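sry for the spam today, last one i promise. struct tokens for design, 197 residues
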């Protein structure tokens, strides 16, 4: 279970109540619920499990089944939307995982300032966050926003990455474009060479 999933469950009472009810089911059947070593085997993970009072048999509780059942049984879109909101991310200058993959590689996202020069398709580029300078695999997408956070409808071309910046020009293919000079926000999605924990 990832930290994002764990924190989503930890911070959402609706989800907690669902799991509490599932665990309580085991408690009301007379078993005791524990977390830890269920089989006295050091090579197996610690798990959530219950013990049968009559046989003293420890049986792991499969949370994956409960999570899947939660989504298939729950027809309340408000609950699903709460979970989506809890699992979402804020696009800032810090790199965040989108939770998506492209050809098996994690898609990461961040934003940065980029300067557009008068009458020039070349931009200043976007400073790459230090922690990811050596972990960038490929640029997935680049989108620009103006000072009022409106999407700027312009193509991005000639993308290249140097040791500290993602450089690009405005346009499509070999046809270049310009924008009014000034500072814009670029949202950069890229695939990471390796997942960071």
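last one done:
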């Amino acid at each position: 279970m990832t930290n994002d999933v764990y924190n989503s469950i930890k911070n959402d009472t609706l989800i907690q109540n669902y799991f509490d009810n599932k665990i309580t089911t085991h408690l009301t059947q007379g078993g005791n619920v524990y977390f830890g070593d269920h089989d006295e085997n050091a090579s197996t993970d610690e798990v959530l499990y219950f013990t049968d009072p009559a046989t003293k048999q420890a049986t792991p509780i499969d949370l994956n089944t409960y999570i899947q059942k939660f989504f298939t049984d729950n027809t309340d879109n408000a609950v699903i939307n709460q979970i989506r909101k809890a699992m979402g991310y804020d696009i800032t200058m810090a790199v965040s995982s989108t939770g998506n993959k492209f050809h098996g590689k994690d898609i990461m996202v961040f934003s940065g300032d980029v300067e557009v020069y008068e009458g020039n398709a070349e931009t200043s580029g976007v400073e790459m966050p230090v922690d990811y300078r050596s972990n960038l695999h490929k640029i997935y997408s680049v989108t620009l926003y103006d000072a009022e956070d409106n999407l700027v409808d312009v193509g991005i071309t000639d993308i290249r990455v140097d040791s500290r910046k993602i450089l690009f020009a405005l346009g499509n293919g070999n046809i270049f474009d310009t924008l009014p000079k000034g500072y814009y926000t670029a949202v950069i999605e890229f695939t990471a060479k390796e997942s960071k924990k």
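Residues 13-28 form the longest helix (16 residues). ok im logging off now
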